[in-house]
Design brief:
About 40% of the residues lie in helices and about 15% in strands. It has 19 helices and 16 strands. It has a 5-stranded mixed β-sheet with strand order 3-2-1-4-7, with helices on both faces. It has a 5-stranded mixed β-sheet with strand order 10-9-8-13-14, sandwiched between helices. Strands 5-6 form a two-stranded antiparallel sheet. Strand 11 and strand 12 form a beta hairpin. The two termini are about 40 Å apart.
Length: about 500
């Protein structure tokens, strides 16, 4: 069985390792570097961590699966046009570039655009220093590197782990390769077929939401969840109609569009327009308007595609679908019998998708053997008892070792009494959600717990927490559970 290492050197960089068809380990670079959203680089820490968890080294890897993102500069041949520019600049600047080269990374989008626009008869491999890459990164000379399209990795992961034999697969984010920010696909009989896509500059749903995030004073690519939290406290009535100019559908209802796509620099123009429209409005109302415009466009596009494809199950992936309120509206559509969202929906999940796409290349019929419903995401590192004791001793903390039954009883009594528990067990979760192995546990029936926890954790005061319940009580406590039960297990839908 082949060993496939998946790498996402993008925003939320990550790595994973498969042995045959089994995903053994996966982790984001940020979990190891302790830098939130660590990315736009080769995730060296994550690569070594997943291989170590699998009991392997880089010499054991047969295939390296990557998305077209960022590579160390030394592994990329520069297109001739870039060499000509460098030839004309001053020698002092050339020397500075040479000193910097060992530390810098090349955005592979530059190469893809060059091939598309200027050298359509060349291949990406003409610019990739394969042997130097394998030697420089410590892989065997006979290991096979593969580069996979960004949105294909999103789509194949959603389709494969949904467990659906056939589905409509929709991906959306800020931007993938060659400006693609949305795809609509059909997964049937083990084949994934892309029918529609949006690549219009200025029409990206992820960049729309990111612009609103930044204009409200938050950090783009990090605090979009704060906009969602704010939206619950606002009214969209005053701004929604105006903001629809910045996010809407093409007349055929199959792709994303906006008012500014025909103008030079459409994304900055759209952001300027948004700034002009929201000026003077409450941030809660801005967030509510942006959320409803965002939802309406995506729900309508998805509904149209369901009608066209005849599918009744929906598999979703890409950073846009971190928005759990949007996912709730999609699940509620009468055309939907089941909804699944891959839980590593940001670029962190692209390492898994790249590996799956390579498995389908090297093992004919891999996808035809059927999708596999995702069982759990406990794919990160675990700690031994000795490591836990050492960490507690290092902090000077007082601790006590309990039998499991006593531990559970004491923890439950503490939660019931209004205490807050830090729960640490087993392997770390992969992706952005805490799913019981690295979780804060508190009493959901305490009306003041939200404000109390946010204050103690120094979080923004309006941010929500997710209640958890035993599966057997879900239908008694929540509405519309059956269609999105699988997604709800991973905290990807309201």
């Amino acid at each position: 069985m082949a060993v496939v290492l998946g790498i996402s050197p993008s925003h939320d960089a990550s790595a994973c390792v498969f042995h045959g068809e089994t995903l053994l380990a996966a982790i984001s670079e940020e979990r190891l570097s302790r830098i939130k959203g660590d990315g736009f680089k080769f995730p060296q820490l994550a690569i070594d961590a997943v291989l170590n968890m699998a009991g392997m080294t880089r010499r054991d890897v047969d295939h390296v699966a990557m998305i077209y993102a960022w590579l160390p500069e030394r592994y990329v041949r520069r297109p001739l046009w870039r060499k000509e520019i460098e030839r004309r600049i001053s020698r002092s600047l050339q020397r500075w570039l040479l000193r910097r080269e060992s530390r810098s990374h090349t955005h592979l989008e530059q190469i893809l655009r060059h091939i598309r626009d200027r050298a359509p008869h060349t291949r990406f491999d003409d610019y990739f220093r394969r042997d130097l890459f394998l030697a420089g990164e410590g892989f065997r000379p006979d290991a096979q590197p593969h580069f996979i399209d960004h949105h294909l990795t999103h789509a194949v992961t959603a389709a494969f782990y949904s467990g659906y034999p056939e589905s409509a697969v929709v991906t959306m984010d800020g931007q993938g390769d060659l400006n693609v920010h949305h795809t609509s696909n059909v997964f049937r009989s083990g084949e994934l077929r892309r029918l529609h896509f949006s690549d219009t500059p200025g029409a990206s749903p992820g960049l729309f939401y990111g612009a609103i995030t930044q204009l409200l004073g938050f950090q783009e690519l990090r605090h979009e969840g704060k906009v969602l939290g704010l939206a619950a406290a606002g009214s969209p009535a005053l701004l929604a109609d105006a903001l629809r100019k910045a996010m809407r559908l093409t007349p055929d209802g199959r792709r994303l569009d906006c008012e500014f796509v025909s103008l030079p620099f459409p994304q900055p123009r759209r952001k300027e327009f948004l700034a002009s429209q929201i000026n003077g409005h409450r941030r809660e109302d801005v967030a509510a308007a942006a959320q409803i415009v965002f939802e309406d466009a995506i729900v309508t596009l998805t509904r149209n595609f369901l009608h066209e494809s005849g599918m009744r199950r929906l598999a979703l992936n890409g950073g846009v679908f971190a928005n759990v309120k949007l996912n709730q509206r999609l699940a509620a559509l009468p055309e939907v019998d089941g909804l699944f969202v891959f839980p590593g929906m940001s670029d962190t999940g692209n390492s898994v998708g790249a590996a799956l796409a390579v498995l389908d290349r090297i093992e004919p019929g891999f996808l035809k053997r059927g999708s596999h419903p995702l069982r759990d995401l406990y794919l990160g590192p675990a700690s031994t008892e000795a490591e836990i004791r050492a960490a507690l001793d290092d902090r000077g903390l007082v601790y006590e070792r309990l039998d499991e039954a006593v531990l559970v009883e004491r923890a439950a009594a503490a939660v019931h009494a209004g205490r807050v528990i830090g729960w640490f067990q087993g392997r770390m979760e992969f992706g952005p959600r805490a799913l019981g192995n690295r979780s804060i546990v508190a009493r959901a029936t305490d009306a003041g717990i939200n404000a109390s926890l946010n204050k103690r954790l120094e979080r923004t005061e309006f941010m929500p927490f997710a209640p958890s319940a035993l599966d057997e009580y879900a239908d008694d406590l929540f509405e519309d559970v059956p269609k999105s039960r699988h997604a709800a297990e991973f905290m990807t839908v309201c």
